[in-house]
């Protein structure tokens, strides 16, 4: 948890976590003191001991509440800082790294893993009191009252603890992967048969799907029965040992010859090990889960990000060039010493067969991919030397597809023009060949309509460089041609440099210039 990558988010929480731990410890000690008062009441019937115990129970409860508030408040701040840290890191990752993570992996990082850490951070202080301080104090009191013989009362809890701390983790580690695979198999088979039953019947495969489901169900049953048989007997023994009657029997055998106060103290404090052991069956699982989550988050935060410089402004015309660029993906070179200067006031179309690095080149031009060799220059300045805010002001990158935010069309367009009025937003939509209500939910639009919302942002942006990846892939030829002509007017009339990737050669013919990529051994050629 104190890994250097998580430290910036965790360190500010240390004071409150430490205070919360102390409060939890003193709460436990106060409750033990109250219990001691009740034992004294057995020997000396007096209202004093009743009041004594009541006061310490109230103090213990108040300290427990304070401990809970302190650690949860500290954890809330830690979670918020960690989420911001992950978000800041995420938006600075190269696209090649992002593509390796996967949607589910990223979702687990920003949601499930942080929630797991929440449970670990927020509950660990109280567990320190329960599993360490209170048992130690109770054991010291037992030895002081009865002597070393009192240690025998700890035997049931100690044996049960060994089961939960050694045997259960060993069996889970050995059989966990197999059980999980059996679960996945039966879920997959059920889905194949139930959800795909219509297709199965069309092609006469329903009997095969049913057979697969039946086999998976049998494997599931056999696996579960086998696993339960391995742990059931030991689990039953451990559960029996954790019953108070087992500990009380030994406690009575050890202390029956003493006075009633000593016997009562022995019986009460004999549960010093049993009570924590009752929580070992599930109570400490969150520690292992928290450590695993911390490991994944730490590994993610150690992924190298795109560097950002300190230049706050650039002088002169904002020209776009790429010089001697080479890029490798999974040991395959997709760009090799590519050099090109993109003309201003015009559209440049990047074409070529799939896999030659067109999108990679566009991402490198946007500063979203780091070249192994070469440099992308804005106004003769390395784009990575620019402050990221300046880079985003100068370059607008609209990726392929129709991704939109789950909000209105107006708010999606406002990403490119915060101060634009409705008339300007509607004009941009018209240039993108889209007629839609600004209050419409963007997520309910068709794929082509979503794509045109992205294109409309180009007409609203003040960035002098606009990069579009397959901007018309979901559109018919008529609308695609109209949009390219509108973009051409935008480039010429507003001094823009527009670069687009396209597979449509008819569309590329409307561009002012073309960069054709033929493969990693070809540096590209201009047409």
UniProtKB/TrEMBL annotation:
UniProt xrefs under SMART domains: AAA
Keyword ATP-binding part of the UniProt annotation: yes
Any one GO molecular function term: ATP binding
Membrane topology: Multi-pass membrane protein
SUPFAM superfamilies in UniProt: ABC transporter transmembrane region, P-loop containing nucleoside triphosphate hydrolases
PROSITE patterns: ABC_TM1F, ABC_TRANSPORTER_1, ABC_TRANSPORTER_2
Main location: membrane
Top-level taxon of the source organism: Bacteria
Gene Ontology cellular-component terms listed: plasma membrane
Name the UniProt record assigns to this protein: Acinetobactin export ABC transporter permease/ATP-binding subunit BarA
